[in-house]
Amino acid sequence: MASGGAGDDDGGIPLDIDNVHMLLQVEHEQIQKRTFTNWINAQLSKRCPPSFVSDLFSDLRDGSQLLDLLEVMSGQRMIKLVNINISDIIDGRPSIILGLIWTIILHCHIEELANTLSFSSRHSSLDSLSSLDSWSGSPVPASPVPGGRTSPLHRRFRVSAKKALLMWVRDQCQRVGCSVSVRDFKSSWRSGEAFLAILCSLRPQLVDLSLVRSRSNQENLEEAFHLAERELNIPRLLEPQDVDVKDPEDKSIMTYVAQFLQYSNDMPSPDDHLQVSPSERAEEVTCWLQQAYQELSESQTATEKSSFAEKYQVFQNFADSFTEQRKPVMTLLASIRRRPEMSQEQCALKAAWDRLEEECICLGKCS
What we know:
The protein has 367 residues and is an all-alpha fold.
């Protein structure tokens, strides 16, 4: 006679829906822990001297590695932690620490990278976003601004970093003729084909996509992670067994995929040899930022006695125009933050950005 199932006298756990959910949650926590720990160590290796996290739930208790991480991501010295329950960190509560690290990854890494994306992408990508069921929310019209100032994307969507990253992935896949349907950051990645398609788009000579269908999921994933680490210097945050599961952990996959976008942003454009040096480019962008600051100041003065609605409209027009043109600034700032030392021109660029940012915040409060 067949032996009894789980929950009989053998002491097994009954596999009812609640227990299955609990086991899946624990599995996702473990994958997040490994991925986030790898991501943190990749960032902390940029410090001088570098630091290292061995156990995510215990090594953050004194706050020193957390401060190190925030300094690397912001490019500024951190003095104190804000709105963080220190007792939860001291106790090593997994949900709190994983949530905290995900917030840092999303806002300081993924969103910053997504902001550098060119929003003049293919209409097909934009149209396909509207059909996605993975995220809540529907197209929201942007604030009214003069014609020609905003991109098609801004006119139709307020796009989250998650959607922007997905749109970038789909563009990479289309670029190399990959037919895989990437609809989310979960099961769409299980076969490994999407990772290899991104690699093929960034470095065509590295990958033969015709071999993908003849290999197993784990073989494709191993190939992608190995090539990304060896050829693109992208830290191996995931293992094949983390992705080749029925319900992959989406935050971990997003964290890893964002590194490919960073690599893409750091790649020289085809005509870079015809362009000016980094120092000259920093000077040009600094000049543009100073002009933008002057424009903002003049707008603030001109609307001093205007109504709230008029002030808001002026600020909104400036913000939309500035957002559209900020890609070179964000790209340069991101590369500057990764350098241990900055040139005089790069210091001037960062100072000009900080000044404009403060003025925007001030005007936003006033309006």
